[in-house]
Automatic annotation (TrEMBL):
Family classification: Belongs to the helicase family. DnaB subfamily.
Highest taxon listed in the record's lineage: Bacteria
Protein name in UniProt: Replicative DNA helicase
GO molecular function, one term: DNA helicase activity
Signal peptide: none
Gene behind this protein: dnaB
Source organism of this protein record: Clostridium ganghwense
Cited function: The main replicative DNA helicase, it participates in initiation and elongation during chromosome replication. Travels ahead of the DNA replisome, separating dsDNA into templates for DNA synthesis. A processive ATP-dependent 5'-3' DNA helicase it has DNA-dependent ATPase activity.
Catalytic activity: ATP + H2O = ADP + phosphate + H(+)
């Protein structure tokens, strides 16, 4: 077997820096685990340093020797501990050492995980899907390990000031990506990177149509978006997009009952859509880890802006009960938005409580597993069509958007036009 990735000089250097400047150990502890060190000798020394630090004892060659005691010979004795004092060769940037040690540790974990996967595949003790899921989850865990996010205020001030300058330079323009709807832009400031947005409604209210219209507005303005459709196929998604983009009745497209004029419009629409950065995935039984991996690839290659998931209740998650499943899903989606610096929009169902009230307009308590979804969502909005419940409604042809939670903006409601034959949601004049 080839030699596992390692950098003993970086390991020794980090320990040497700690010996020379005890205050540096806090950075190492917050970023590295003991097992991230390859050398068992360095693992033992670092563990002892951590023990001294926790007990408010100065870390020196003398105190290390005393605390190690009978095991001193195994780590190279006082001679090796003294050698560590000069091992960093005057280069005192501890973060550089941490990055090298962490990278080597990650490579070792990938190698070991791959080896274990090979053993299981050869023995056929698990199915190929089980093994693939294990590898995928393992890779996800390796690259989502917590790193030290602590920063001195001087660095934060500098970065924040630069961001404020950039925003000021936009002179009142949207700070986020335009949704294509004036009132929604005013409420949210546009689709903000790092935000997790929930769009919830009862069945047949138009949440899939709204989500797709929103995504198409974004890609038409040169944004990059991905749609994860767990319930419908790619073909069914495209039927809806063709309908509201080419203004061909949805039922005509579904039944392939299209006249010559509509074929011409459909051809124009197809040509225009082919140039857009829109990606559609209709994988069923998908996990957040799979969604994240695909989004990461799109982010690197196409600078992904927005992701639409239809819908959150169909995402696969292994947990003891449904509440834990939803909690895991929403937390991971929120983390994905933040880590990949994208907007994640997840469609969600409302429970039946809304049907039992005289006023059927949704509230936060109507969300299924409401506390968990509401907690993680930066923005929670509901869709409501009064004509669904009242045939003589004065709001026929209108879709009400209720922004019930907005962590960084305003709440309230506004109305949009709803054209059901085209599955189209439009800005009211």
């Amino acid at each position: 077997m080839n030699k596992l990735p390692q950098n003993l000089q970086a390991e020794a250097g980090s320990l040497g820096i700690i010996l020379n400047n005890n205050s540096k150990i806090s950075q190492v502890i917050s970023s590295l685990k003991i097992e991230d060190f390859y050398s068992t000798r360095h693992q033992f020394i670092f563990r002892t340093m951590c023990d001294l630090y926790k007990n408010d004892i100065e870390i020196s060659v003398l105190t290390l020797s005393d605390r190690i005691g009978n095991g001193l010979k195994d780590v190279g004795g006082v001679t090796y501990l003294s050698k560590l004092l000069s091992s960093f060769m005057g280069y005192e940037d501890i973060n550089s050492y941490i990055k090298i040690i962490k990278e080597k540790a990650r490579l070792r974990k990938i190698i070991i995980m791959s080896y274990n996967a090979q053993k299981m595949a050869y023995s056929e003790e698990k199915t190929s899907k089980n093994i693939a899921d294990m590898v995928e989850q393992g890779l996800y865990n390796i690259y989502t390990e917590k790193e030290n996010k602590m920063a001195h205020i001087s660095d934060i001030v500098e970065d924040s000031f630069k961001k404020l300058e950039d925003n000021y330079g936009k002179k009142g323009e949207l700070l986020g990506i335009s949704t294509g709807y004036k009132e929604l832009n005013i409420a949210t400031g546009g689709m903000q990177k790092g935000e997790f947005i929930i769009v919830a409604a009862r069945p047949s209210m138009g949440k899939t149509a709204f989500g797709l219209n929103l995504i198409m507005n974004i890609v038409k303005n040169n944004g990059s978006a991905a749609v994860f459709s767990i319930e419908m196929s790619k073909f069914q998604i495209m039927q809806r997009i063709f309908s509201f983009t080419a203004l061909i009745p949805y039922q005509n497209i579904r039944k392939a009952s299209i006249n010559d004029k509509e074929w011409v419009e459909l051809a124009k629409c197809s040509s225009a859509l082919g140039d857009k950065n829109l990606f559609i995935d209709d994988t069923s039984d998908i996990t957040v880890s799979e969604i994240r991996a695909k989004c990461k690839a799109l982010k690197l290659k196409y600078n992904l802006d927005v992701v639409l998931i239809d819908y959150i209740g169909l995402i696969n998650a292994k947990a003891e009960n449904r509440q834990q499943e939803i909690s895991t899903i929403t937390r991971e989606l929120k983390n994905m938005a933040k880590d990949l610096d994208i907007t994640v929009i997840a469609l969600s169902q409302l429970n039946r409580a809304v049907e039992q009230r005289a006023d059927h307009r949704p509230m936060l308590s109507d969300l299924r597993e409401s506390g968990l979804i509401e907690q993680d969502g930066d923005v929670v909005m509901f869709l409501y069509r009064d004509e669904y419940y009242n045939m003589d409604s004065k709001d026929r042809g209108k879709l009400e958007c209720i922004v019930a939670k907005n962590r960084n903006g305003r709440v309230g409601s506004f109305k949009m036009g709803w054209i059901p034959q085209y599955q189209r949601v439009v800005q009211l004049v």
